[in-house]
Design goal:
By secondary structure, this protein is mainly alpha-helical. It has one domain (about 10-225). Helices cover about 70% and strands about 5% of the residues. The chain contains seven helices and three strands. A three-stranded antiparallel beta sheet has the order 2-1-3. Helix 5 runs antiparallel to helix 7 (about 190-225). It is globular and about 50 Å long.
């Protein structure tokens, strides 16, 4: 296993928190480029930074990240179905790879460190951001799969549906991941419900596994440290 250094995941965690906190307010500023897209780009850059200790993971992740960023910004200029779907697929693949690699590091660690805890939080938040890509792809292919107060999420604005699709589905994703379930944004078909159910189950199972792993690692380290 690579030597994961302390503080490796701090930047990624900060970018994920910024995405969650600033996205709802970013749309209040009237700029040409979606602010959510800028924040999302920072998340991808921070994610590849977190993989820098593993050459194979870094090279593979860098390839996916560059492709994801390129297609993301191209879709801002060209609203072509193949390009949009490629954007969602590449983003989901890259975030999934990053989450899997960080989780592997956590589960194979020999002791609990600050970096271990930060990495665990990053994985949880990455799940939420990853599901936004899945929800967005479904809403793009099947408009009306998600509704807010009876209006399709993709129809919240006539000029640029994407500008509102991301903030609303980001909100829905984390409400689902945490099983909060306010009910203001709802899935309306079986595919959307299946995705939401999968995310809710994953969120709860992950928290249980993560906490159990931290406790197990801590106890094992204390046992070795106080050995004969």
């Amino acid at each position: 296993m690579p030597n994961w250094k302390l503080g490796r995941f701090g930047l990624l965690l900060a970018s994920l928190v910024a995405l969650l906190v600033l996205t709802p307010f970013s749309e209040l500023v009237n700029l040409e480029v979606s602010r959510a897209r800028v924040l999302y780009s920072f998340v991808l850059l921070a994610a590849i930074h977190s993989l820098r200790g593993d050459p194979w993971a870094f090279r593979t992740g860098l390839l996916l990240m560059v492709a994801a960023l390129l297609t993301s910004w191209l879709t801002h200029q060209f609203d072509l179905a193949p390009l949009v779907l490629a954007d969602y697929a590449l983003t989901a693949s890259f975030l999934g790879l990053t989450a899997a690699l960080i989780l592997t590091n956590i589960l194979t660690a020999d002791r609990v460190t600050i970096d271990t805890m930060l990495g665990g939080l990053c994985v949880y938040l990455l799940f939420g951001v990853l599901w936004v890509s899945l929800y967005s792809a479904l809403e793009y292919v099947m408009p009306g799969s998600f509704e807010m107060e009876g209006t399709a999420v993709s129809a919240l604005t006539e000029s640029r549906p994407e500008a509102h699709r991301y903030p609303e589905l980001l909100y829905f994703s984390f409400v689902t991941l945490t099983t909060l379930g306010y009910g203001d944004v709802v899935p309306t078909n079986s595919m959307a419900r299946a995705l939401a159910t999968g995310e809710a189950i994953l969120g709860q199972v992950y928290l249980a596994v993560f906490v159990a792993s931290l406790v197990g690692l801590h106890l094992a380290y204390r046992t070795r440290d106080s050995g004969p």
